[in-house]
Amino acid sequence: QVQLVESGGGSVQTGGSLRLSCVASGFSSSDYSMGWFRQAPGKKREGVACIDGENFTRYTDSVKGRFTISQDSAKKTLYLQMNSLKPEDTAIYYCAADSRARRWKHYNDYTALQEYIYDYWGQGTQVTVSS
């Protein structure tokens, strides 16, 4: 049974940093692509960043230069380093996995960060940024 468990959320002030982690288990293959999504109150869930088995990454425009997605395959852990946080980054952050292990170099930012691409989801971790 596939499980994704996020951690690392919390409350910070504007300009602060947080690092989110997502531990994956239960995959039948070691090759899968991962992503981070977020959902702010009253808004639709949106894709933030994704990474594939070749460590190719994609980001949504609003986080480019501030967030960094990475993974430790040996630990089966996905990370999201978030710097220069803003109040508009406040949301529940979700980890997601694409079991088809797509290669993001074949997709643009918009498509790679669409929800329908991903078939496994974590429960989310809250990030709150105060001004």
Offer a concise description of the structure.
The protein is mainly beta and 131 residues long.
Task: Describe the fold and architecture.
By secondary structure, this protein is mainly β. The protein is 3% helix and 47% strand. The protein contains one helix and eleven strands. It has one helix at residues 109-112, and strands at residues 3-7, 10-13, 18-25, 33-39, 46-51, 57-59, 67-72, 77-82, 91-98, 120-121, 125-130. The strands form two sheets. Strands 2, 4, 5, 6, 9, 10 and 11 form a seven-stranded mixed sheet that branches. A hairpin with a 6-residue loop joins strand 4 and strand 5. The longest helix is centred in the last third of the chain and has 4 residues, at 109-112. The radius of gyration is 14 Å and the shape is globular. The N and C termini lie far apart (40 Å). The model has no long low-confidence stretch (mean pLDDT 95).
Set down the secondary structure blueprint.
Blueprint: E1 3-7, E2 10-13, E3 18-25, E4 33-39, E5 46-51, E6 57-59, E7 67-72, E8 77-82, E9 91-98, H1 109-112, E10 120-121, E11 125-130
Parallel strand pairs: 2-11
Antiparallel strand pairs: 1-3, 3-8, 4-5, 4-9, 5-6, 7-8, 9-10, 9-11
- On the 0 to 100 scale, the average pLDDT is 95
Q: Strand portion, in percent?
A: over 45%
Kindly provide the radius of gyration, computed on alpha-carbon positions and rounded to a whole number of angstroms: 14 Å
The geometry reads as globular
Label the structural class.
Answer: mainly beta
In helices, the fraction of residues equals under 10%
Please mark out the parts with pLDDT under 50 across 5 or more consecutive residues, or reply none.
none
Count helical runs: 1
Overall strand count:
11
> What can be said about the biggest beta sheet?
7 strands, mixed
The rounded distance between the terminal residues' Cα atoms is: 40 Å
Would you list the SSEs in sequence order as H and E? EEEEEEEEEHEE
